[in-house]
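dumping this here before i forget
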Amino acid sequence: MDTLTHIVLGACIGEAIAGKQLGKKALLLGALAQNIPDIDFVASFCLPVSSDVLAHRGFTHSILFAALLTPLLAWCSAKLLRENGLSFKKWVMFWGLEILVHIFIDAFNAYGTGWFEPFCHYRVAFNTLFVADPLFTLWPAVAMAVLLIIKTTSKKRMLWAKAGLVLSALYLVAGVGFKLFIDHAVERDIHDKGIAANDYFTTPTPLNNLLWYVVVKNNSGYNTGYRSVFDNGATDLRFVSCNDSLLKSDAGKKDIGQLLRFSRGYYTADMWHDTLVLNDLYFGEMMGWQGPQPRYVFHYFLSQPDANKLIVQRGRFAGWDRATVVAFLRRIKGN
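structure:
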């Protein structure tokens, strides 16, 4: 999830666990604790992009990392902040829950999270929540704002903290329900249309959990499209070739292996003029609901590796204007 989401969630968790002992310090420490796994951002300063995409949400988002760091942070906190009266056991709960909630929530995005690093490189991705969803973040954000204002002696503090967390949890549960509904509809459409599918995935489009991007994989490429929870008809799918024959060139060979591993088998290759490009389908398309041949958000210039400064959300909102937003909302309303 985005940094703001982790900050407000962390603040509410901090208040719920240690607000009585730490006062408003619990909000600050909670916000800090919730963002600890994202310390892996420092890798971007020393690793090439093709390695950095795998390093991010890797070991620092693993269960082992949480197990090793939690008792260390708890011991330091018990020593340095002993005047606050929090026991070592309570500090373990504080740091452990903050870190575990971070890596748990991140796994609901399409990026993938390395829960089992370094023993297994499988990346957990439930594809249920867009990386920045205002309606998921809103509730703990409001709760945090109130907690910053009201007095530490107020009996309503715990109620506000719990309300922010519970409402976000309910939104997450609703998203899981929507995904199950969308997946059922896609499976039915695959069967009815006689598509030879090896696998498929669905993931939310930007900033919502009502319109979903659909990718159906077969031996020669993919059928991609969009489906809203309000759609009545069949999912409108179009074929996209994998073009993996383009990857036989020498361009970007040292990067291809890592990028293909990161894509989990969902990729296409394209030529943009004279530049060879590798696309990762998990991150969706740029305004794909508007045009028949959109470009992909995650695109890596294999023949120009120095041009890849930001690739995960590159161009995500490029070209958005009022007409784009209207078309987006219209598509969410269903066909």
